[in-house]
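Hi V.,

Quick status before I head out on leave. The structure for the redesign project is tokenized and pasted below; the design run finished overnight.
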């Protein structure tokens, strides 16, 4: 319970200015309606004759507007338009990347999944037999592999073949090959930051697997602000060439296990800045902030 209350408090602090703004907007609407009604019905007609009752009505409107503003921002408001020109736009939303990819009924959409430089598909955890696990199940990379294999009845090995086939089809060569000593398990071909492998799902969603981190000797993905920025720039180039103006969904990158050291706020700012500074923006690009991270970053403030 304490954690829930702390999360609510953090969400409130991050969004306080927007909550106040929304509350004033609701109050303005309510007071406008009351003013319009008094053009046709006087206070006497409504049998509201004493000052204290009118005061309580005013206080009730202000309090109700504050509650509506709070609930609207904290619960229902999930979308912010950042830039728009013609049919092209950049937005940010609170949502779930995997519901968008796997559960959405929309066809022909693109979801970006940050991955390591080897496009590994082995998801495991450290135990007595595995000293250095490859893809953590707690990352978007790991969650995507498990969900894809579950939903489409394939093995990680079969998924790996799809990825490798796409890289070969587009004649993308690795920039380095790890030795057996450097990397004992998984794929050993290492690709440059910003390389994209495409996997098409049966439901019509296309996944752009984007390299944002390199392995170290303990199979920990290592990235940085510069690498994340480079990855986003190369992603946008790839999207411009092959995206066919289909909606593109990008999660926050560089937080948590990528070890880039970015906060949620910094990641949102970095992605937004890199997208907006492209020479030309075509299509509808959406930055997805996980709904459970409302207490860490406000899409309306950034």
């Amino acid at each position: 319970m304490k954690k829930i209350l702390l999360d609510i408090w953090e969400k409130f602090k991050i969004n306080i200015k927007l909550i106040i703004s929304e509350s004033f907007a609701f109050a303005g609407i309510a007071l406008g309606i009351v003013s319009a009604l008094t053009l046709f019905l006087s206070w006497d007609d409504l049998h509201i004759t004493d000052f204290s009752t009118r005061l309580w009505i005013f206080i009730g409107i202000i309090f109700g507007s504050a509650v509506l503003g709070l609930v609207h921002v904290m619960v229902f408001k999930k979308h912010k338009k950042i830039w728009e020109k013609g049919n092209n736009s950049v937005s940010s939303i609170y949502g779930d990347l995997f519901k968008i990819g796997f559960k959405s009924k929309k066809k022909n959409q693109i979801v970006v999944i940050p991955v390591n430089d080897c496009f590994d598909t082995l998801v495991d955890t450290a135990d007595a037999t595995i000293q250095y696990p490859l893809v953590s199940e707690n990352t978007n990379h790991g969650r995507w592999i498990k969900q894809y294999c579950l939903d489409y009845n394939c093995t990680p090995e079969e998924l790996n073949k799809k990825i490798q086939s796409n890289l070969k089809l587009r004649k993308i060569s690795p920039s380095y090959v790890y030795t057996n000593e450097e990397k004992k398990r998984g794929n050993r071909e290492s690709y440059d930051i910003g390389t994209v492998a495409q996997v098409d799902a049966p439901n019509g969603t296309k996944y752009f697997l984007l390299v944002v981190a390199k392995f170290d000797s303990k199979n920990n993905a290592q990235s940085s602000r510069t690498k994340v920025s480079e990855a986003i720039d190369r992603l946008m180039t790839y999207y411009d060439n092959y995206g066919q103006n289909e909606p593109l969904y990008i999660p926050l990158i560089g937080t948590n296990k990528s070890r880039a050291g970015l906060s949620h706020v910094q990641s949102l700012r970095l992605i937004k800045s890199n997208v907006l500074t492209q020479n030309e923006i075509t299509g509808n690009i959406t930055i997805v902030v996980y709904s459970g991270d409302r207490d860490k970053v406000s899409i309306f403030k950034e």
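Above is the designed sequence. The helical segments are 2-14, 16-37, 51-76, 97-103, 140-151, 156-169, 225-242, 264-276.

G. will cover questions while I'm gone.

Best,
W.
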